[in-house]
Amino acid sequence: MNQSDNSTPTPDPVNPTTTRRGFIQAGALATAGFLIVPRHVLGGKGFIAPSDKLNIAGVGFGGKGFSDTNNSYNNGANNMVALCDVDWGLPRVKENFTKHPNAKRYKDFREMLDKEGKTIDAVTVSTADHTHAVVAMAAMQRGKHVYVQKPLTHNIYEARMLTEAARKHKVVTQMGNQGSSNPQQKQMVDWFDKGLIGNVHTVYLWTNRPVWPQGIPVPQPAENTPVDLDWDLWLGPAQKVGYTPAYHPFKWRGWWNFGAGALGDIGCHIMDVPFRVLGLGYPTEVETSIGQVFLKDWTPEYIPEGCPPSSHVELSFPASSKNKSDVKMVWLDGGLRPFRPEMLPEGEPFPENGENGVFLIGDKGLIACGMYGDDPKLYTKSGQKMEAAPKPKGENGRGIPENGHQVLWTEACKAGFNSKEHKALTSSFDFAGPLTESVLMGNLAIRSYTLRSPKADGKGFTYPGRKKLAWDGKNMKITNFDQANQFVKRQYREGWSLTA
Question: Residue ranges of the Gfo/Idh/MocA-like oxidoreductase N-terminal domain (predicted)?
Answer without folding.
Answer: 56-176
